[in-house]
Structure formats: C-alpha cells, structure tokens
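Service request form, structural biology core

Requester: graduate student, group of Dr. S.
Request type: structure prediction, single chain
Budget code: on file
Notes: please return the result as structure tokens.

Sequence provided:
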Amino acid sequence: QKRALLAVNREAARYYHAALRGAEGRAAYDYFRSRGLSDATLVHFGLGYAPPGWEGLVTHLRGHGFTEEQLVAAGVAAPGRRGVYDRFRDRAMFPILDVQGNVIGFGGRRMGEGDGAKYINTADTPVFKKSHNVYALNFAKKFGGDRLLLCEGYMDVIALHQAGFQNAVAPLGTAFTEQQAYLLSRYTKELVLTFDADGAGAKATDRALALLAKTGLAVKVLRLPQAVAKDPDEFLQKNGSDGPARFRALAEKAVSATEYRLFRASEGLPLDSDAGRVAYLERAAEVIAALASPVEADVYAGRVAGQCGVSKAAVLAAVAARGKQRQQQALRQEARRAAAPPRQDAVEPERLRQGRAANAEEGLLAVVARNPDFLATVRTKVKPEHFVTAFHRKVYEELLRRADEGLSMDLTLAGDRFTGEEMGRLVRLISLGEKRANTLEECGLCFRVMQEEALRQSLRQSSEDSDEAFIHKMQELAKNKNKGVAE
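Core staff response, request fulfilled:
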C-alpha cells in the first residue's frame, strides 16, 4: 500500500510541475518568478501548480492505473457525492519529500483571493505525518555538515537554498514539534533558528528552544532586523546581490539561547530609567537562575551588571534569590506529585511497575535502531515475548518485520503503525542511541537485565513454589548474569 501511495504522489508531482509550465499555470509561474526564483530552482524543488478544475489530477492518475481509493488514501483527492475530486485546486504547489527523497505529500498556496486557507497541506496519510517530517531535510542533510538553519516556511527555505544556504529546513506549516526536534538531532549538531522577526516568530522561537533543550543539540538564534525584513526570503530580496553575504554575516552573529532570552527579557523596557533597569534585572535573574552551568551564570551575570549599571555581586544575589524560589517551587511540586496517586504512562503503563526492565528494553532497542545490522545477531536470543512493555514489543516486532520484508530500517517511516503519542516516544527512543555504546556487548548487557528482571518477577510470584522450584529459579538468575546476546 505504501509503495502505491508513494507512486501516486510521485505522479501527482509530475502533473503539477507540468501544469506550471502550461497556459493555466502562468499566474503561478509568474508568482514564483516574482519571488525571485529561477527556473533551475523551480525544477530543483519540483514546484508546480494545481489547476482550478475539479477532476484534472483525478483523470490523469486514473489514466496511469491508480484507483480512486489510492488517490484518497494518498491525500491528493477527496470523496464527494459524485465520486472523488482534486483536493488541491488553483494553488501553487510545493512537493514534500522524506529524507530518502520520496514524495510523501504536498503544500498548496492559494492563488489570488479565492476560498479556503492561504496554505493547506496534505492531511495525515500512511506515508505522511506533517508533525514528523521536515521540509527540505532530504537536501539539507547532504550539505548541512554540523549546522542546519530552521526557518518558518517553504519560501524562506527555497530562497535560502537558491542563495547558497543549502542547509535550510522548515516545519510543515505547523508549530514546531517534539518529533521534528528529535528528527533534526539525528542529522546535525547545531541548529540556528531563523524564524520571522515578529511577535508570532518570537513565540515560535521560544517554543522551539524549549523543545530543543531536550535533544542535546547546540542551538543559536539568528535575529533579523525587523525594520529591514520580517523573514529570510524578504531579507534576501530587499538586499539584492548583497543579500547572501549580509545574511551570512547575520548567521555568523547568531546568539546563544541564553543571549536570546536575555534580549527578550529586555524588550519593551526603558533601560535608561531606574524602573526599567530594575524590571530587566528581575527578568534576567529568572533567565540566569535556570542555567545549569555556574560558569555560564557568572559570565551572564557580569554582562547584565554592565547593562544595568550595578555590581555583578548584586546580580548574583538576585540570581541566588530567584534560584532559591525555583528550588522551593520544585520541592512543592515534588511534594504534590508524591501525594498524588501514581500517574499511568499512556504509552508504557508497565513501566510504573517494571521500570528497570523497561529501561533495559529501551536501551536495547535504541542500539538496534541505530545499528540495524545488529538485528541478525540479536534476534537469535531476543524474542518479542521477552519484552515486558507492549510498546517495546511492538517496536521490536516492527524492526523484525522490516528486516524480513527488506524494507528501510528507519523507524521514523513507520508512522502508519504507531499512534501520534507512540511516534513521539519512538523518536525519543531512537535519539537515545547516540548516548549508548552502540555495540553488541551493550545489547547483551541490556538483555541480561531483561532476563534478570523477568526472573525477579517470577520469584515475586512464586511464594507458593516448592523449595526445589525456588532454588532452580535462583540458579537461573545467577546463570544469566554471565550470559549475553553476543555469546
């Protein structure tokens, strides 16, 4: 089914691109050209046009042997009273590709002032979930090196690529998600946020920083001069031939997450007045108190002291007071959590009772997902029934299925087999592989813990066993301490 849907999307992309060059697509072609895009860029990104008719694409795809059910399942058509009809009509089209280069969906920009939202995306399908994919990552992963630029929209990415910044990517017309954060962490070491220079862009940056803090990525923020341009695309256009060089200079001056937060803390405050400086000091103390590194806190305390015209000792005192407040708040929250009934984990309810086994399973899967060639050895010892959490068992069975069917071992492509919440946990699990030893010995250690915990659980349930049965289980427990996957 997935192969058929990818074929539908690929042929739809060809149809849209051909339509862009036809008479009906002239307005869309002129729109792209007015945005400064070259013909080569139009081809590179496969940009296209969806004509205004209701059945143009449907008729074209039927002629290539695809069924109406496949067109609806791929998201390029929708069911109506008289059969299926084109979902995208009179829109400039942006094909969306996965990291392997398969067309998995589309974004469509309304032409003129017609009905409907300005931008619409393909709805979630068996091959596409917009919260789990990143626009142009298939290109950027080849050129990004250790740094990627994260923008807000399609046009920002395309304009940057044309200007030579082929490491630019974007979320897919939605708020940046945890799944996208972990996906990016697999392809780069540093992410530079280049969101729009307006209130919405500032909120998007704050959200992204919070999500990215969990990934271990180094994160910086590029601040566009709002008086000049609201986004990278506009910045490049307004600066003409000097645009690429000036944007590169801005990128090199991108600030750390802490510097950005301090800048945000100062916004709207008159720092030339005592009241403004006091307010800023209070906000800055909140930012600095959240830092884990004492050295970093000391550096930024000195910087804030210089801005406010006070001693660094005064700033550090304010930071210490705010840190104490944060600690007290954390203690109160911990006390409330302790007093509350245990919360059930929706994805792994078994973890509450068998945390050690669940952690070992997670470690084993993280290593195998990152090193799929280990699976041939691991599967000789580890069976699905060895997993205590149903979620981990499901992940392991999916790895086995993909290996048996000769499919890609990239679990982020298995979105049709997992719920959105499970997919978020799966992406986090995969990212854990970066922190493991990534050896068969590591798999063996994890499996030993799984065996130990299985026997311990069995012992807890064997209070009515005979002495001989109990002794046999204890001997099994001792034996498994020296037994691993790689042996």
